[in-house]
Amino acid sequence: MSTYTEHVTRVITEDVDHPALGTVAVLTFAPPEGEERRPATLGPQSIDAVTGAIGAALDRAEAGEVRAIAMTGTGKVFLAGADLSMFADPSAVDRVEEMTRAAHGLQVRVRASAVPILAHLNGVAPGGGLEVALMADVRTAVPGARGIGLPETGLGILPGWGGTTLLQSVVGPEVAVRMILEDPTRDRLLSAAQAAEVGLVDALAEDLSSALDEFAAILAARGDSAEVVDAADGPDTAVVSHAHPLPAADSAEADALRDALDAPLPTGETRRAWAARMEGQGAPATARALELLQQLPGSELTEALAREAAALGQLARSDGAKASLYSAEMLRRGKPGRTPVDGAREITRVGVAGAGLMASQIAAQLALGLRVPVVMRDLDEDIAQKGLAGARDVIAQAAARGSLDEATATEVAGLLSATADVAELAGCDLVLEAVPEVLGIKKSVFAELEGVLEADALLVTNTSSLSVTAMAEDLQHPQRVVGLHFFNPVAKMPLVEVIHTDATDEATLATGLEVVRRLGKFAVQSADAPGFIVNRLLFRVLGEVLASLDAGADPDEVNASLDPIGLPMRTLALLDLVGHAVADHVGQVLVAELGDRFHASPGLSAMVERKAHFTEKRRGSTQPVVSPVVAEVFGAGDAAKDGGAAGGASMGAGDQAPVGEALLERVLEGLAEEIALMLDAGVVERVEDVDLALILGAGFPRHRGGITPYLDSSGASRRGADRTFHGARFGSASDS
Q1: What is the pTM (predicted TM-score) of this model?
Q2: Rounded to 10 degrees, what is the CA torsion of 63, 68, 73, 75?
Q3: Locate the 3-hydroxyacyl-CoA dehydrogenase C-terminal domain: which residues (predicted)?
Q4: All structural domains of the chain
Q5: Catalytic entry in 14, 33, 98, 131
Q6: Digit-coded pLDDT (tens) for 140-192
Q7: Is 152 a residue of the active site?
Q8: Which of 14, 33, 152, 593 is catalytic?
């Protein structure tokens, strides 16, 4: 039984008389009546409506009734592409081939159009929306339009309604390859100005009327081409001949396309090698798109479109697409809302206790997001002033990137101040502590603040692993304490874990969530439990890796063992990024709080003492290589002998240290066990919260859906937790 309900896109058709063009059939894509806030998308019925309307306009052109066709959208949406919710329903996915045939049939037909066609991008045009625009002879865009591009390979599929085949004929091979293969991995879509710069858009126009004028001027300018004639001369004249948009087999265009596919990335890896590696990590869409691009030279259009259709049909049913689309929908639903959180208190002044690196980053984000005075306080006046300078530098860097203009940057920087006097925090509605990760220090800070602040002012901790309940237990008003765990670097990391205790009242929690919303970050709620969500699961992974090293495993083999997951960096490089002292501390806390499922590594403690790094950068290597120091410190299983006494998940000296697939299975089964325990204990309410947190806070790949779809499809959830997290939805192991 189908669970998919389509919101069918309408196509409003009207004729407009233009002095230079003659009668223009204007097709406006619109959401269903009464659902104007929804974007116009393409489901099975919608693509019939869109292709049917364009086909009818072409019929009228052939009959001499109109001399041009123009397509546009409503509001700030031209056409938002495929309806992603369709892919969650197996019966709806079965109609992808039918939809593709309709789109491809129209792509072929418009190349013999009797009249010129305009696509005016009044707003976003991702995916299938852009592929519809590629049918046009001319594309214009509103100057402020954004969201133009082909994000499909990042969703586990590919631009299958003509995009993979046709984009290179519009923008050239290099730009097309970048847009199809690379941009989706960065969530990069083009603005109107960027689209114009690469030739995807021919002109910028404020509205449809201006767009028609630009259209007429472009057609007139092209009039000296042997393949172009004035559309006003009659309905049976052609504009730009794009009947043969594919490069010939031995042409310069074909060579340029092959060069683009083999071009190196900033990492040193070629695009081809990178696509192959991604396929090995369960993300085949990029490699399939690259293969289609490689096959274009010398092909007929219908042949190329047939290959595109076959590839899209296969990918749409793959576990990679299921997981990628699951994560895309989850991210869409979890993004910061436009309306304030119900029950949140008003915030007019904020304090930050501490002035170190993390404190200055958070203070800058609070000033940027809340636009209220932010007072930094440290016991030492010089440190306080240094922290203030650091926070203002964050603002300056944002201005340098173009994230805000100079006037706004000056205004926001003026909201920041610093002091050594705790009394200057009086009058703050919220004070966030970002002092060293020691429970006694944090309790002391909160006790001091309680003597200064009003009884309903929020006390917020940025702790990454300590008990918020213990932090608040001696306070007179523990109900006003909440955790906001920011991740480093604060400006770039989009996640904040919002930690509530049993005592936290509803207004405090709502206010914490509202602060995160106004900062433009994703909020994931967690109960007060050791490590919360991200660190608890991340250190379950790191614990297994360190336990294998402590047991004497080869460091290089250990370092490569988790590659199939597709994490953005290998685990030993991640340890260097986290910081060894921090990792050692968090590992000790989790062992003490949660027991021997976690691992307190004597080898890691030795690395801290040596102040040594696990990895080092080497020219020509796409990944940092393992430092020889690691083998010296962890060598021959000596650390494992000590590790038995240290407690945790370490193996005895006589145990074989797992590497490769054995270590990978251990990690996945451990994650499944830990996630199940967290769900059962109410640390998180929904499995989607776990996936969202790991994607945004730890870089777990979107093509895996975060982690739980991968655990289901690989069978690890059954082995480690005796359950699946999503029923039968990700039950196949075909892509893992």
Answers
A1: 0.89
A2: -130
A3: 531-613
A4: 10-219+230-317 (3.90.226.10), 350-520 (3.40.50.720), 534-636+657-721 (1.10.1040.50)
A5: 131
A6: 999 999 999 999 999 999 999 999 999 999 999 999 999 999 999 999 999 99
A7: yes
A8: 152
